[in-house]
Amino acid sequence: MSTLVLPTRRSALADVVPQSFLTDTLLAIGGAAFVGLMAQISFYIHPFVVPFTGQTLAVLLVGSTLGVRRAVSAMVLYVVIGLTGMPWFAGHTSGYSSLLFGYLLGFVVSVTLMSWLASKGNDRNVVSALGLFIIGELAIYAIGVPWLALDLHMSIAKAITIGMTPYLIFDLSKAVVAGVALPGAWRFVERATKN
Hints:
This protein is mainly alpha-helical. The chain has a single domain, classed as Arp2/3 complex 21 kDa subunit ARPC3 (Orthogonal Bundle), CATH 1.10.1760.20. Helices cover 66% and strands 2% of the residues. It has helices at residues 21-38, 55-65, 68-83, 101-122, 126-152, 156-163, 168-194, and strands spanning 42-43, 52-53. A two-stranded antiparallel ribbon has the order 1-2. β1 (42-43) and β2 form a beta hairpin. The radius of gyration is 18 Å and the shape is globular.
């Protein structure tokens, strides 16, 4: 009597790597380091108080590829280690910045939401992946902008004007890049694992 072996459905791209405590830990550390590295692509445009960075692209990729546990671990690690002195926040900074802390919390919320949506298959084609990345960006703003308004004692409308609106085109372009790249990575992995 033969046994039917069904292919395992991967819920995250990182599931290609055999799961163990060691690989999960290394993926979380790698995800945090990737965000820290991309945060060094950073510049300010006067009069805006929030930097333009590459780190949100890294947050989107971590959230969409690592799975919930590893992605959340990576973001918590990134935030905690940065708060305790590792200079891997935007512009080679570290420590608590009340102005920007809401965006850091938004990273954690974003990867949680994105990895859950990705596990439902929303990362497999360009249209749904683009939607996934836009939702991830909006989750960051949903926490970061109200925090900015509270910190600067201004209205939400004003905080949107200085902490979200100028960044939308930049962030949309990141979402498009990631939205095209991720389904392509899935196709590559699926072809490679069939052989």
